[in-house]
Amino acid sequence: MILFLAARPVTARPVTARPAAAPPVRPRRRVRRGRGRVRALAAPYRRIFAVPGTRAFTVANLLARLPMGMLSVSAVLMIAGSRGSYALAGAVVATGLAATALVGPWTARLVDRYGQARIAVPATALAALGSLSLLLCVRYDAPAWTLFASYAATATTPNTGGMSRARWAHLFRDDPAARHTANSFEQAADELCFMLGPVLATLLCTALFPEAGTAVAAALLLAGVLLFAAQRSTEPPVAPKTAVRPRSPLRLPGLPPLLVTFLSTGAIFGSLEVVTIAFADDHGVRGVAGGMLALQAAGSCAAGLLYGLLRPAGAAGRRFLGCLAAMAVLMLLPLAAAATGSLPTLAVALLLAGMVTAPTMVTGMGLVQSRTPAAQLNEGMTLAVTALLAGIAAGSAVGGWAVDHLAGPGPAYVVPAVAAALALVVSLPSNAGRFVAER
């Protein structure tokens, strides 16, 4: 072949006139470069959603998770509007969240034992009936104790975010980088729901009728869980039964101190929600409260998505401490902004304060996953959410009390500031001197 090619005559190609080269279009190059950078930044998220079935269960779970940002705000607006007491509204919400803190781990244990689809659907149906009962009791001016009983009946609501995280953990059990990206997305999704939920709840309760927010939230919850449970291809397998009963995650090393920190962190969210609604109401613009809470969630959502693009470096315990310290500092901003009496200033402060929420929760949930066996993952994450809910319940009650007994809702912002400082203090003994090796 080489001899044959060498024997071929070499002829020059005919010279043809070439058109003058057009000057490069720089704007188009810049657009392409910009698109390339965006695609490169989004590559970790495109990678996790390339797995079949992930988009379907994510959309369904977002629909089921949206009511989580609606229910408490709807209850506060509905009860405070009809009974004229933020203390009563905060106490009712606190009772329901405390009941969820007790019932939630048992529901999660059943999910681990029998599967997500078999447990989540009937549990959600019971919770929807509780919301309907609360709506009717408020509508027809039932005694106050019926409000507490009805909202406590919503305690069977399954941890939809935990079930979604469990699916990601199963799909990427051998890929820590993908799990980090998935956990960051899930936290951003939580914040998105808590950003849109209060706005939607406030709009429904003020534009339509006070019970509209609770009614729509219950319907969305039931529909979303039904669609999520139907996605069976990505559902984690049920843990095989063993003769030896596994010990409770509460007895696992390193987990109880972490749950105490989540408890204090939840108090930040619960008190911030009630105090912000009361602050807007005190200024005669109750309908703006949902938007102000949405700004805090917006800051957290953006920070969560950006955090998912980064590769975590260093010990997770040290990063968790750093996030908590930043949260303790930034939670002083709403207190300072409220002292000025300016709603726009407070809105900016809430936006900035929310930017550390998602990185804190992503890192904390990563610690929970690393310290919990795979067969008890739903239960472990639900315990973390339970601690958050218990903290939210306490924060709602204390925040409502502070609004009614302090000199207006402005000084009541001291409650989330103190809760943030407490979260940092309680985390120091378990994370400052030694760090648990994460897998």
From TrEMBL:
Domain Major facilitator superfamily (MFS) profile: 250-439
Database matches in Pfam families: MFS_1
Residue ranges crossing the lipid bilayer per the database entry: 62-80, 87-107, 119-138, 215-234, 255-279, 285-308, 320-340, 346-368, 380-401, 413-437
Subcellular location: Cell membrane
One cellular-component annotation, GO: plasma membrane
Coiled coil region boundaries: none
Keywords for the protein's UniProt record, in alphabetical order: Membrane, Transmembrane, Transmembrane helix
InterPro entries assigned: MFS, MFS_dom, MFS_trans_sf
Membrane topology: Multi-pass membrane protein
A single MF term (Gene Ontology): transmembrane transporter activity
Signal peptide region: none
Protein name from the UniProt record: MFS transporter
